[in-house]
Amino acid sequence: MKRSGCRALLVLSSLSALLCYIFLDPTLYLQDPQPAVPQRNISILLWRWPFGRSYRLDGDKCLEMYNIRRCFLTDNTSTFSTADVVVFHHQELKEGLSALPLHLDRPASQHWVWLSMEPPVNNPNLTPLSGIFNWTMSYRRDADIYIPYGKTVLGGDAQSFQAAPNRSCLVSWVVSRFRPQQDRAAVYRSLKKYIPIQVYGKWNKKPLSNKKLLPTIAKCAFYLSFENSEAKDYISEKLWRNALQAGVVPVVLGPSRATYEAMAPPGSFIHVADFKNTADLAAYLKQVAADRQAYEEFFQWHHTHRIKTFTDWRERLCQICVHFPGLAASRVYQDLESWVHS
Question: Where would I find the Fucosyltransferase N-terminal domain in this sequence (predicted)?
Fold first, then answer.
C-alpha cells in the first residue's frame, strides 16, 4: 500500500483511538477539573530536593500557585514527627546523598512516598526499600500519585499557533547522554544514512541554553523525540517540551503507539515502529516535508486540544493532596522492585 494510504489509515486509527480513550477513560482528554479538597490540612515533607535544586516554600504555595487548598509543603526535616506525608526522591537515595530516617520514630499514620521520574533502568538497588513505602509517585499511569511530564487537555487555540512556512532543516535531535548500546542510538545511526540530522547537546559539544533550545528546534520540520529507555508510559520532556512546545512534528521512539495515542495530542506524532526500516521512515519524512498540506495535518490538534507541561516540583508535590482522599491508607509496597519493573 502506498504511504499516502497508510497515512489515511493512521488518521482514521488515531480518531478511533481518541474516541475509545475518551469513553473508556474520560480523564485523559478532559479540561483540568477543580482540584479535590482534602477534609483536613495535609502537611507534606520533602526529605531532600530532587537533583539539589530547591524552590521557595514559604506561604501557602499550593493555594497561591495551583488553587489547591489545605495542602502545605515543607523541606524542614525537623517537622518529621508531624508530617502526614514524607516524600523521598530515589535519585538521592541511590547516590547516597540522602538516607531514609529509619532511626526516627515514624508516626503510625504517616505515609512515605517513593518518587521517581526515571525509567526502571535508572532505578537500581530497590530491594532494600521493600516494605517501607506506602505510595508511589511517578510518570506511570498506574502510580498512586500520577505526575506525567505533560498531558493533553481539551480546549484548543489554533489562532495562536501557525506552523512555520519554511524550515531550514529537516530533522534535529538534542542529546546529552549518548549510549551506543541504546535502541535510540541504533535508530539514529541508521536513519542518518538516508537523511541529514542536525544534532545538538553535550554529546557532540553543541549544548543549547534554555533560551536557545526551542527556537533552534523550531527551525527544523521534525524532531527525534527518542527516549533513552523504552519503558511503560515513559514519555518525557523530549516530546512535550522539545517537540510539541517548539511547534515541530515529533518522531517518537519509546513506549507503544497505543501509549502515545492515549497521552499525546491526536494525530500529532510519527512513531518509528510504524515503519519496516529506517529507509522507509526517512522516505516518509521527506515526503511529508515536501507536502505542505500533509505536514500541517500534524498540527490540526491545536483546534481542539492543548498541552500542559509539569516542570515545577512544587506543582508535582501539591498533586499529592489532590490524590490524597482516594489513596489506600493501609498500602505498603512489600516488593517495590517488582512494581517498578512490571
Answer: 41-150
Q: Domain for residue 47, yes or no?
A: yes
Which residues lie below 8 Å from residue 313, measured CB to CB, with a gap of 6+? Answer: 46, 49, 50, 53, 55
Residue spans of alpha helices (H) in the chain: 3-24, 61-66, 90-94, 183-191, 210-217, 237-239, 257-263, 278-290, 292-296, 313-323, 336-340
Residue 136 and residue 50 in one domain: yes
156 and 13 share a domain?
A: yes
Nearest of 187, 156, 162 to residue 173 by alpha carbon:
187
Tens-digit pLDDT profile for residues 7-22: 444 444 444 444 444 4
List residues bridging with 42 in a β-sheet. 71
Domain count along the chain: 2
pLDDT of residue 214: 96
Phi, psi torsion values for 170, nearest 5 degrees: -85, -55
How many CB atoms lie under 10 A from the CB of residue 338? 11
Structure confidence at residue 83 (pLDDT)? 98
Residue 252 has pLDDT above 50, yes or no: yes
Please list the active-site residues. 118
d(CA 103, CA 58): 28
pLDDT top residue among 223 and 20: 223
Is residue 342 included in any domain, yes or no? no
**What is the C-alpha radius of gyration for the chain, rounded to an integer number of angstroms?**
22
pTM above 0.85, yes or no: yes
Going by C-beta distance under 8 Å and a sequence separation of 6 or more, which residues neighbour residue 17?
A: 258, 261, 262, 266
Classified as helix, coil or strand, 73 is strand
Q: Measuring CA to CA, which residue among 316, 22, 332, 321 is closest to residue 150?
A: 316
